[in-house]
Amino acid sequence: MAELVADVFVSMDGFAAGVDVGPFFGYAGPGLDAWIREATEQPQLMLMGRVTYEALAAISSAAADDASTRMNDLPKAVFSNTLREPLAWKNTRLVRGDLAERITALKRESDVPLRSIGSLTLVRSLMELGLVDRFRVMVFPLTLGGDGREPAYAGYPRTGLELTGTRVLDSRVVLLEYRPASFK
User: Fold this and answer.
1) DSSP character for 12?
2) What is the pLDDT of residues 14-57, one digit of tens each?
3) How far apart are CA 38 and CA 51, in angstroms?
4) Using CA of residue 4, residue 89, residue 70, residue 124, what is the dihedral sign?
5) 3-class SS of residue 1
6) With b meaning 16 or more CB within 10 Å and e meaning fewer, what string describes 59-94?
7) What is d(CA 87, CA 91) in angstroms, rounded to the nearest whole number?
8) pTM for this structure?
């Protein structure tokens, strides 16, 4: 069965976005670029919700940089009951219906790992359903306070996590990797 990895980028105070912070909260760097390149070079089926799909499709489908080109080539599945086919971003299929059934089927059928990027609502639902095998959190070194938007963990179920790895990128951004674990 294919593994499902959920990637979430957050500020220190748990926001996925903020006022006037730009991509990667303004902390892009060669280490983060290398990690993104490594992550997108791995075989995978990218999973996303409608909002993330619309944002990334608008950026990546017309871009010519290496990361965007790789994302264009990767197979993608967007979970939405409001989008209609045909979808504009190449290699993207629309998935409708019961999320638990559809993800379970994808995990069973896929010969590559499934990876969500962004898509906070989708990741929250996947966590509630117990379908996430690895949960990776990229923590950026800033607090947003009142400028924070999109609290990353709002509405998440209580979930125990076991730390399985850490990595520091550009001497400031920390990647934490977890597996769901039972409470002790």
Assistant:
1) T
2) 999 999 998 899 999 999 999 999 999 999 999 999 999 999 99
3) 24
4) negative
5) coil
6) ebeeeeeeebebbbebebbbbbeebeeebebeebeb
7) 9
8) 0.93
